[in-house]
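ESCALATION

Customer reports they have been waiting on this structure for their group meeting. Please prioritize. Original submission:
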Amino acid sequence: MALNNTYDARLVQQETAVGAGVQILLLALLGTAIGMGPAGWLTGLAFAVGTWAVLSRALHRTRPRSFGPANRVTLGRSILVGGVTALVADSFESSPPVTLFVGLTAVALILDGVDGKVARRTGTSTPLGARFDMEVDAFLILVLSVYVSMSLGPWVLLIGAMRYAFVAAARVWPWLNAPLPPSTARKTVAALQGVFLLLAASGLLPHAMEFMVVATALGALVWSFGRDVVWLFRTSRVEDAIPTATELPELVAS
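Update from on-call: job pushed to the front of the queue and completed.
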């Protein structure tokens, strides 16, 4: 029997709908457990609807054969991030239980290393899956930086905003969109952002230590982004200096 490798829109869209349903169920559980206020509910629901809409559109555009096991892990992680987002929004009205907040965030951070391994082992790595994973990571860092900024100051928001600032800058300077070479240092710095922000948010460290931990995270992130920007700029200058195929005959004729 031949395998069906065609795009099944109904089955793929069902997975995203189930994800949105589980997200709402998690919000209901959180609301029951801590008496979550309107800000938490509205933010959590907006996250659920937004994730479903963006992911559904991306799936319809790329038309994968199936949703894939790695994307299911990432979707599960995004559900946890939605819960963390709701708790952070609710914290403007009342402080969330630290154990619950740290627990949800810690599981989301741990799962960050799972979806990539699943994709490689099952041979289901796709550009969409990598982008989905990256966006969930970036949004979690943004949410954590918002939470930590309430105790350490608005400068912490630079951590969460840096990736989005880079994306915005790439619209002005297209050379920033060029692919970067693999880098263990870049991956390590990115992974440590969530860990350091969670440490600062946990309340386990003295205030001065929280400041040092987050400042270290920000310094490492500035170094990592700065190094990549310099590499991209130098590469773009080299490429501009190399004659294109249409320019070569003119150079030979001259």
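Sent to customer with the following note: The radius of gyration is 21 Å.
Escalation resolved.
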